[in-house]
Amino acid sequence: MIESPRGFDIRKLEQWLGGESFVTRLIVLDDVDSTNDFLRALARRGAEEGTVVVADRQTAGHGRRGQPWHSPPGLGLYLSVLFRPRDPADQATRWTLAAAVAACEACRISSAAPIEIKWPNDVLCNGKKLGGVLAEMRSPPDGPVELVVGTGLNVGHGPSDFPGELSCVATSLRLANGGPVPEREQLAADYLRGLARAARDLKAGSWRAVARRWERLAPGAFGQRVRVAAGREPGYEGLTDGLDPLGALRIRREDGRVEVLRRAESVVSLEA
Ligand code: BTN
């Protein structure tokens, strides 16, 4: 545990990783626009599965729906991994959930705070956002799939390190722990080890092993009352009922019908 992390030390990460064979190439940058964008460009030029990009700082980090991802130097973990799954595109959500599991488990290793996943891939602590996953996929007609899974975790931020409205909705491991923070290199290694395990399960066809890990970390995945908006339609309410085989969230309506939800934007929890 350290109080003021500075820089990102590739040697420390290599040491923490030990001989984790899943990482085929490790690139650590001081500055980048976005680790996802950087790795997508490498993927297009043929980079190997298991290529990992970490940056100390991002100048144009982004999340879902094109939202900016606040990425100051020294404070966060910004990391992307390249996969080349053979499965069809509709299974990409499984990989996203696998990354959320790995991120949440890595945070829990260094924190006793109530860190959990909100479907599909938000990492929260006491209702505030600690991290998130952005998976971006391209299936070129003449080559293997490029699936870039990027994870951002807020690590060393103090109360004044989040700008504007972010300070109300975001948190960090430092804030969650009330002081001490793990080294980002250790956090990255724990995350990559957890992701490697999940990737092995997915490749072996053991989706349920990953889903079980995810469901254990996501208390809202079962029995939580939610309202689902359906565009201009009235929408509906129901209780969450775990994951379907592709990683979508099942919602059981009051009349017993089960709906399957694929987009996070349309679901609102009705519980505190
Ligand atoms: C979200 O919750 O909306 C997902 C946030 C994902 C942010 C990470 S930081 C590393 C990688 N590079 C990016 O530009 N985005 C992801």
Structure report:
- The chain is an alpha+beta fold and 272 residues long.
- 28% of the residues lie in helices and 31% in strands.
- The strands form two sheets. It has a seven-stranded mixed sheet with strand order 1-2-3-7-6-5-4, sandwiched between helices.
- β5 (122-125) and β6 form a beta hairpin.
- The two termini are 32 Å apart.
- The relative contact order is 0.15.
- Mean pLDDT is 91; it is low at 1-5.
- It binds biotin (BTN).
Q: How would you summarize this macromolecular structure in one to three sentences?
A:
Helices cover 28% and strands 31% of the residues.
Features:
28% helix, 31% strand, 7 helices, 272 residues, alpha+beta, binds biotin, five-stranded antiparallel β-sheet, single chain
What summary fits the major beta sheet? 7 strands, mixed
- SSE pattern: HEHEEHEEEEHHHHEEEEE
Rounded mean pLDDT score: 91
| Outline type | globular
Helical amount: 25-40%
Ligand catalogue: biotin
**Binned strand content:** 25-35%
Sequence of strands across the biggest β-sheet? 1-2-3-7-6-5-4
Span between N and C termini? 32 Å
By DSSP (H or I, 4+ residues per run), the number of helices equals 7
Q: What low-confidence regions span 5 or more consecutive residues with pLDDT below 50?
A: 1-5
Strand tally: 12
Q: What structural class results from the helix and strand content?
A: alpha+beta
> In angstroms, what is the radius of gyration?
18 Å
